[in-house]
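Sample A.
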Amino acid sequence: MTKRQTAAKALTLLFSAAFFGIIAAVTFVITAPLAKEYLTEETEASTSVTIPTDAELQPTEAESIPEQETCMESGTAEELVGDVVRKELETLEFREEDWEAFYGALQKRAAEAEQGLVTITAVRQRTDLFNNPVETAGKFSGAVIARTPTEYLILTVADAVNGMDSIQVRVSGGQEVAGRVVGIDHIAGLAVVSIEIAKLEKKSLEEIRVLELGNSYTVQRGDLLAAVGSPAGYPQSSGFGTVSYVRENVQIIDGTSQIFYVDVPGNASKGTFLVDRDRKLVGWVTSDFQIENSRLAAVRTISDYKSILEKLSNGIDIPYIGVMGQAVSEKQIEKGVPAGVYVNRAIADGSAYQAGIQAGDIITEVNNIPVATRQNWREMIDDLKAGSVVPVKIQRYSRDAYIELEYQVTIGAR
């Protein structure tokens, strides 16, 4: 190729680039306003709430010990650490101002979390024996968990909305506005209420905050949590305590959950919420799983509830089968027990019980999808639609062998 041909080709490329660049610029100028008008409006108009779920922490394998370290005498490392700790404790001077600073930090944590709390006044209208109007009201606590373009969404106890004629919500700052029931989970005893952003004053908008949902899978025994809401039975009370015990994979209806036992005051019926050191919501006090004659509060954890809470926040019916069960272990499978979820209890008003499923059955398939693990079981129920009819296969022990049965189950709503 000659120099003249090379120059001509380069000029052609430059001209083409300039020409198509101009075309692209003109096209952008013409279409940008239209794109902004239609695409932006659609995004801003979206009022659905998305709550990402948390991955459960998997136990890690213990690291192997290098060969050169195996010759250490047993207990040497522990003794060295113990000596260091004892020396530090002997020289440690914890002064009064240190205690004040410690409790001051805890009070600050509670105060910041309370900006994401509200007080709900629920009113019920009734008449007495003489047909005179009688009004009763109760006060409950709620946690602001999300904001849409038009509303704040508030998690509270179901007792705050069940059978009530009106709901008033007092936000941080003192303003009171009307609340609307978005959804109720009768099984967990929770509800979501909304308030309109347009009705909030400037001061209220400046003070109210969304209480971010934390990852309860990361909470460990010994962690210090704050109880806010109504731990004393009255709104705007608070307390602090450590996690004494973490129960894993506790059977609940249609799933499993962690349960924390925390050394804090807690009133389940009025709404008590637990926040971690990052001011994130990690659970709520429940009357279920409470240990008799124990001062420890039983706490349902937020991570195991997020998929349900997303549906509840969007007013979507939560699918309900009504089974309490556990996954068949690998050891049991090796002994000839079919893989699936063993039904410990079929709730009397549940869809499974009404279809014919009994305690002792092993659920192996739901809607033609094999049930393998408890996580798989929980996700499978989350994907069902209330009102739909799905095939459920079970293995039932009869005489000396398991037989397969199939039921058509109408999925209920909780």
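Sample B, a different protein:
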Amino acid sequence: MNSFISKIYRWHPKIPFFYGWLILIVIGFSQFIATALAQSTFGGVQDLIVNNMSWDRKTIALTATFGTWAAGCISPFIGKSVDKFGPRWIMFLSALFVGIGMITLSNVQTLWQFFFIYIIIRAIAGPNLQNVVPRTVAVNFFESKRNLALGFTAFSRIFGESTNLQIITILSTFFSWRLAYRTLGLIAIPLSIPIFLIIRHKPEELNLSIDGKKAISKKNPSSLKMKNWTIHEILKLPRFWYVILGDGISVICTSMIMFQLVPFLVDGGISQITAALALTIGNLLGGVCVPFWGFLIDKTSTKRVAISIILACMATTAFLLISPLGIISFSLALIWTSVTTIIFVLGTMLLASIFNRESFGTVQGIAGLARTISLGLGPSIGAFSISWAGNYNPIFIIGICGYAIVIFLYLNLSHPNSR
């Protein structure tokens, strides 16, 4: 019996290509589960929950904020744990927990029940299935194509958000948001099985080498890229803080606008389904571009590519500010979403240019705390700014100014591969 269980535990499929690419596919399953609760998905369907439960948008925004912050608080612990114990059991148990949690969420009757349950399952889903652990696994399996691999994890996250947004919107419109989350919970539970069977910590567990090479390349252990960083050394590195501050500000600006994008279009006279479609198509277009950006960063200058991306974000936000409501704002919202989608993984790509895989989980855990604090601030800043001003202009103005600060920070950033 023990031998049979051991064989199942050690089993993995024999495939004609590098196992790391299969890992990225299965990471897509975990991110599909997690993004049912993601902030961008939640923002797109908030009105459906608000109208059904007679709550208000500020309440939903606060729920999203605290859920995201809770995820950030456990990120450093998760990052250290995945470096030490590996991702397999962490991702498997998290997928089961989140699936059961979504079914439980669909049965709540009061605001406080919704608030409490959403925060708990969002905290588990975020670092374990969406950000810290999946990205660490990607970095562990790839080196020369590291940012390309991170780009694929970003695309699978975006695809999950877009798919979940449409599933929840359609089921909520024709039935109820409760049925939508119950359905997604029932899908999540069986998806935990391939996660358990396929996911591994490092290619060496399968007698493979990083990138699928026949031999592991030996580099100077004293070089910056191969240094095994302690937490103290990470926190003392100025480049780390340039990335953390720039990433934090850009995530605040992007999440703030993205969370209000569907309400912005709906208040402009566009239907809920059409507005959600703009967010979905924009996310998908942006997601398709993210692997390309990752490939470009692998081949060229991290710094120049990052600054170019932020400039594009600033320009499209300015157009949203001055555009009239209606079909033009719909088109611009679609373009804005496709341009800004990479923001949520750009900081990770920058960090991957500095730190090697031996300490990347720890780095991601620390960065994940800062990023999720920023991600949580965005919806609340946006909701209260709109409530104070009576229109959407403040979120676009804050976004433009924030992106300008990020450009300044990244201009002072140097990387080993910045040429």
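Observation for Sample B: The two ends are 57 Å apart (CA to CA).
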